[in-house]
Amino acid sequence: MALFSYTHLATVVVVCCRETQELTDPHTVSPSLPRFSTSIMTGGALSRLSTLSLSVKQFSRLPNLSDILPSSPPFLPSPSPTVPVACVPALFREPYILSGYRPVGQDWRCYLLSLFQRHNESLNVWTHLLAGAGVLLRVGAYVGSHGFTLNAPSLPLCLYVLSALTYLCCSVTAHLLQSHSELAHYAFFFLDYVGVAVYQYGCALAHYFYCSEAAWRDSTVGLWFLPSAAVLGWLSCASCCFAKSRYRRPYPLRRKICQLIPTSLAYFLDISPVAQRLATVPWGEDPALSLHALQIAFFMLAALFFSSPIPERFFPGRCDIMGHGHQIFHIFLSLCTVCQLEALFLDYGRQRDTLLEVYEEKQLWSASVSFLALALCSFLTAAVMTRRVSKSLEKSGATKQ
Question: Per the annotation, where are the binding residues for Zn(2+)?
Fold first, then answer.
C-alpha cells in the first residue's frame, strides 16, 4: 500500500509537469489552437494538481523508507545528528563555528561512520584522505612508468613518501575521532603533531639529498642541517603538545606563538636548500624549480589560514560546514605536498645514477636510522603528554564529584 501511494504520487507529479510544460512552451502550443481547448487542458492540469495536493497531505502519513527497509545491523550504529556549539564542552568549540558539532560520548563506530556525515570536520577529514589517496596513486604511477628499486639512492624518497602518508593519516584520524571524549581529543591531536614532526624531517631528508647544491652543503647551514632538522622536528611536536595541554579555551595568543615559532624555524631550515637553489639556478634549465616555487607558495598560503580564523571571523556561523580557515589550510597543504612530490620525482630522476658519487652509502642508510629515531621520540613525547592529560582529567573529574 505504501509503495503504491509513492508510485501514484510520482506519476501525478510527472504528468502535471509534462502538461504544464506543454502549456507554457511556445513551440508546443499552436497559434491557431482555440482558446477553449487551452482552457480545457488547463482545467485538466488543475484537476491533477488538486489530486497532487491531496497526495501530498497523505504523504506525511505514509511510513518512512527506513521503516520499510530492514534495520541496520547492530554493529553499524547510526551517528547522532550534529548539535550547536552550546551543546559541546568548551574544549571542542572552535572560534566563530556555531554549529555542525558531533555529540561527545558516542560509540567509536559512530565517529568512524561520521566520515559520511555532514559536520564541521567533514572537509578536514576528506581533504587529507583524498590527498593521501592521490599520493599513493601518483607513487604507483611513477613506479609503473619509471621502475623503482629500494636501495640507498631511493631511500630518502621512500622516507619522504612514508612521512607524507604518516602526516595525512594522523590528520585524518585526529579530525575523525577527536570528538569521542576530552582524552581522545588530546590524544589524537598529539598524534597529529607526531605526523607533522615526521613529515618535517622527511622533507628535510629529501631536500638535502635531492635538492641541495654543493655550495650550500659546504656552508655552515648545510653541515648542521640534518641534526638541526631532527631537533627542530621533535621540538615542533613537543611544543605543540605542550601548548595544546597547557592552555584552555579561549586560547591566548601565546599558545599560537608557542606552536608557530618551532614549526616556522623547522620549515625555514628544511626549505633552505630549495630556496638557495631557486635563487642561484636559472629556472629555465630545471623544470623542477617551478614546482618547488609552487610548493613554497602553497605552504605560505596554508600557514596564513592556519594562523588566523579567516574567513569565519567575518562570517560567524556561515562557514561552519564548508569554507572555514582550517579546511582551506588543509587544501593548500595538500597542494603543497602534491607539488613537492612531483618536484622530488624530477630531482630523484636527475640524480639517482650519480647520488652515490656525492654522498656515501653509509650516510644515506644512516638517514633511515635518524628518521626512525625522530618518529620514536615524537611518539614517546605524545604518549607521555597523553598520560599527563589523562591524570589531569581524572583529577579534575574527582574534584568535581
Answer: 175, 326, 330
